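TASK: fixed-backbone design
INPUT:
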């Protein structure tokens, strides 16, 4: 029995990966969310596409529509089996995401259209007041067999 529990614990360690960080609700925080997510996905050996675009859109929405001065937002990534879940939590639970009409020359209103197109599933979870979490899920096995580039190339010896 103890052996079975130990094996299950080891198996879970290999199948559940988690990363979470609070960030300032500013454009710089949104940019940092994308950069940190990219680095974490590389560390896990997962493809960046489409996750980096989803993180960018969800973080931009949090700092644009979910911002409360003096309060942060939180980026959480976790992988269970072959599913990557991206969560962005902000402190404007009263402002739920909704699609806005898009005009050809408009500068906004396309974020949720992109999220719908890129994610396998997405939605909103109401958290403890005043929070909400907007989440998106993508299958890591459906993203192709593209190799994830390392951030720093290995130096080649001189000839």
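OUTPUT:
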């Amino acid at each position: 029995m103890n052996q079975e529990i130990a094996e299950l614990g080891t198996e879970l360690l290999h199948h559940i990966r988690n990363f979470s960080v609070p960030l300032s609700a500013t454009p710089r925080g949104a940019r940092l969310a994308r950069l940190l997510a990219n680095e974490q996905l590389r560390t896990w050996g997962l493809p960046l596409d489409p996750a980096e675009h989803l993180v960018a859109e969800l973080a931009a929405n949090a700092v644009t529509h979910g911002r409360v001065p003096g309060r942060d937002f939180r980026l959480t990534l976790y992988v269970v089996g072959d599913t990557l879940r991206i969560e962005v939590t902000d402190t404007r639970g009263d402002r739920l995401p909704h699609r806005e009409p898009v005009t050809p020359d408009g500068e906004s209103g396309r974020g949720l259209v992109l999220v719908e197109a890129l994610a396998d599933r997405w939605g909103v979870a109401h958290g403890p007041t005043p929070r909400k979490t907007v989440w998106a899920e993508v299958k890591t096995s459906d993203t192709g067999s593209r190799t994830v580039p390392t951030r720093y190339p290995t130096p080649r010896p001189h000839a």
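COMMENT: The chain has one domain: 14-98+109-143.
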